[in-house]
Every structure is written in structure tokens, then in C-alpha cells.
Here is the input.
Amino acid sequence: MRINPRQLPQNLKQGLAPVYLVSGDEPLLVQECCDSIRAAARQQGFGERELLHAEANFDWGQLLASAGSMSLFAEKKVIEVRLPNGKPGDKGSKALQEFARVAGEDLLLLLVLPRLDRSQLNSKWVKALDQRGVLLQVWPVDTQEMPRWIHQRLRAAGLDAEPEAIQILAERVEGNLLAARQEIDKLKLLSDDNLITADTMRHAVASSARYDVFGLIDRALAGDAENAVRTLQGLRAEGVEPPVVLWAIAREIRSLLDIGEKLDQGQPINRLVRIQKRQPLVQSALSRLHRRQLEGLLLRARAVDSAIKGSRDQDPWAGLLELTINLSGRRSL
Here is the structure.
């Protein structure tokens, strides 16, 4: 069964499936979907949870071994597998298909991975998991949907807002859902009567981080490593969460890979980068960073994501510093 995040609450009310495959590149929505599945599992008596990170050289035998090692004190078990590159390989594909056969009322698989392309959706392992459970595809919130999404989140937080206020916030966060959630949390503290006016929103936006995340990206694209690092340090000092910064950097790296490929195919820069003032920044970055370097940066971004989630012994801010320096075209120590 294939569903979207809006359908998940109702789906969970109908009972748990033995397999959940959560696919998407929007970290906030992926996290919230996984939280809902875990909460439903706890309510159904799944008292044990094991987390596996299927990165490079992962031993897929661990997955089947985990399935066979139930705790004496827990009748039901959730096995959560994080697959950062979305490609399990031949061994992983066989292990996942085998797991799909053994998953059931006492054993639940939660597989979390990036957005799947068409060939992956048609692979044997995805079809096997889909037949046994739920494939949850998480799509980013586009520019047109963003005001409606913000309004829903405000209402869920017990707030309401003038249309102009919602538009101001939508333009401020530029599609970053984690940043939008942070702003809404702050608005709960600023609001006296639960109605957010345009003036209140302007004040909240103006008093938010002086070191803007998107300013960090522009300075890095321009090759201004010194000011990019200073901006990163300012973001940290002002309490901006690492996932917000990582989201912006990773999105820019993926965008550069896509734009670089289309430029090689002969497409014009003004069609690929609509905002004219950003065209020189993108061209500057692509003149310094080749495809292989950008792919390497994307792998490092995934390592930082693992550090943020606590599965890697690394300071996330140290990883973000390295990414910022490298995106600026400098080598890190």
C-alpha cells in the first residue's frame, strides 16, 4: 500500500502493518512520520526497538540476526533500519526480501531512506516490502503549498494568523520546514491573543537570526570561506539547530549537481536558476567544484546527519564547518 503523510494517522488507526518503508528528502516530515509509527507500535505492545545504520560495508546478516534475537522481556520488537543512500545492493536486497517474509504481528520493520526513483520503486526488494506493508512517500512542500502548510501548523499550535502574516513567514523560510517550525514555536511565546498579525510576524522575522542560513549558502557559493565560516559561527551562537543548517547545505549541493548536469546538456543558466542575482553565485561554485567533489560533499552531509541523530561519534557543528569550507572551494584540515 502506498500512502502520503496526510493518510498515515488514519492508516495507523486501522492497525499496524508488519513493514513500513518511509522514503523522502524532507527531514521534518520524515521524522514526524517515523515518530507516529513508533508511537503506534508502543501502544500495540512493541516494547523493544533496535536501530541499524545500513551505511557502506554494512553486514546485512545483522538484519536477519536481529529478527531472530527477541528479548526475553519484550514480546514484540521494532527493527528500524536507516539506509542513507537508498541502495541496499544485492545482499541487502535479498535480506530485505527475506525479512519481508518473516515480519508479522510480533516483528515490525521500519525502513527509512531518501526519495526513491522510478527504478528503485520497481525493484524486487521494494515490491516485496510494499506487498507486506506500507510505502510512505514523503514529498517536499512546494512554494504554492507552503502558506497552507504554515497555516495548518499554526492552527495545530493553537494560533491563527492574518493571510499577510502567513505569506511573510512563507517567504522568510523559503521552503525550510524545520525553520518554519522553529519560527512557529517562537510565535507561541510572542503572541498574547493567539492571533498573529502581519506586524507581529514582521517583528518576529526581523528579530530572528542575524546570521541567515541562506546568507551562509550565498557566501559559500561565492567562495567567501572566511565570511561563510563567520556566518556559521553566528548561527550556532544564536541557537539555530544543526538540522536547519544541514538541510540548506545539502539542498544546495543537490541543486548544484542537477544544474551542472543540465548545463552540460546545453540548457541555459537563466532557465535553471530563475533568480538572476544567484546565477553568478551558482556559476562561480560550479567553476570550482566538479561533479565528483559535489558527490563527495553529499556523502559528508549524510555523515553529519548521522552525527545529528547520535549514531556517529562526531560533533555535528564540526561536520557543518567542514562542509561550509569545502563548499566554499577550500580544503579542510
